[in-house]
Amino acid sequence: MKKGFLFLSVLLFTAGVSIAQKKGKSSNAIPFTVAKNYFVSNTFQQGMLTNPAIYSQAEFDAIFGAATVKGKNGAPTAIDFSKQYVIAVIPPATDKAPTLKAVSLTKSGDIITLKYSYKEGAKLTYTSQPYLLLVVDAKYKGTVRTLKI
User: Where are the domains of the chain?
Assistant: First the structure.
């Protein structure tokens, strides 16, 4: 009985240390909101977005437009550029159903890293311009880099 209790105690302690280490790694995570109900302007050309961080309404409006739809969640996500900024990922237009998701947003020193996934699905009868927009609090400014995983 004592050996079983000792074994269980060691096992629980090891699991606790493992969980604490994982939590420690995520302490540099940055909170964000995925912006909804926007579209990429038809004047956008690949290469126009030289920096994924957008800090002003004018810069944002040059690339994106609001796509308001009916319903409870039809308004575009509010962005207050005096307190927030946007991180944008705009892959090339595609005729395959795109799925673009933020995996993580972290800060290490002055570097902010957005890890995202991008997958293409079934062939479509039209071309779609995928995008990912993250709204981030301005207190998390830094040099932004994106990493497709």
Answer: 1-27, 31-148
